[in-house]
Amino acid sequence: MKHPTLKWLILTLIILSAIIYMYIKKQDSQSSAEATTKQEESTETKTKQEESTVTLAAVGDVLIHSRLYIDAQQADGTYNFHPMFEEVKPFLTQADITIANQESVVGGSEIGISSYPSFNSPYEVADAMKDAGIDIVSLANNHTLDRGEKAIRNALAYWKSLDVLTIGSHTSFEDAKRIPTLKKNDITFSFLNYTYGTNGIRVPKGKEYLVNYIDETKMKHDIQQAKTQSDVVVVALHFGKEYENIPNKEQQKLAQYLADEGVHIILGSHAHVLQPPAFLTGKNGNKTYITYSMGNFLAAQTDGFDDRYTGGIFNIRVTKKEVDGKQIIELTDSSFIPTYITNEQENNYRIRPLESIPQEELPQKEQISSYLKDHMPQYMEELKIE
């Protein structure tokens, strides 16, 4: 006959062993879960640390016609262009980088102010643009050589004194070899700029550095150099046909060439009217953002057509990521803020967000707005019009 006490003792030991085993297993499971959570948190933190973002804003032609500098002239002979930019300043300053096409050379009053067809603008234009939030100006356009080398050198020196980056025009061959770069939020951008021509004015022999012309061989070389010293390559092009609101085949062909070369962003100007932006796909599957024409940002062309007074602020978000040890650049959140140049009988010229202008002040506002909502997203359905 078995001893009952021994039987219960064995049973008790078995139960205790089971309880201890389950407790240890639970503790191990909790420790493993905590370790996994910490690892996931660490990975997430690392991912966030390896992701950088920059917002880039771009605007079109700043072309100072006589009516603008007459409006800006003060009693003492100086000029004040600040009010013209006042209403768009908040939109220009909120971007990390803002670039404009400075079409009329800012050569200063000392060599004589002039308008169409041979432009030279006062230094005060640059002061107002700097104050409004412009970080970079593209200078290679059909008016670069209007007033010769003196105007160009004056302009380059003055922009430099304001700490505004200039592209497309240089003081020497040595200067022209350098790729202008700008670093923001751990992303380095390089900026290149070229024009189709200079209104038949030839660059002085031996001074070809004064303006960059569109040349695929040169552009290819510059882009390759830019890739070695930056994360993002931006090219500003002065190209196309004036007053055409759709990019032509030559524009599209050149844009595709640049996309195939790996350019990330192309900023077009010259048409003086808005052309729809687009995303292109390069031969390596890369994504390229292009504004074929950004229209006039500040100008006073005498015909007064609405499309030549309509411009805008183009915005794109640039994100740099590290994925499996490989750097990736993403272009997202493309948006467009329509602007309109208003005046009161050729006085008080202002660049204004279209939405802020009262209907009674601009009776054709709804017509312009409706046109832009149809016109601008036709190559880019996701374009946000603000």
Automatic annotation (TrEMBL):
InterPro entries named among the record's database cross-references: Capsule_synth_CapA, CW_Biosynth-Accessory, Metallo-depent_PP-like
Keywords: Membrane, Transmembrane, Transmembrane helix
Keyword Ligase: no
Domain Capsule synthesis protein CapA: 55-301
CDD domains: MPP_CapA (cd07381)
SMART domains in alphabetical order: PGA_cap
Spans through the membrane: 6-24
The keyword Transmembrane helix is assigned to this record: yes
Family in the record: Belongs to the CapA family.
UniProt-listed PANTHER family: CAPSULE BIOSYNTHESIS PROTEIN CAPA, POLYGLUTAMINE SYNTHESIS ACCESSORY PROTEIN RV0574C-RELATED
Protein's name in the database: Capsule synthesis protein CapA domain-containing protein
Natural source organism: Priestia taiwanensis
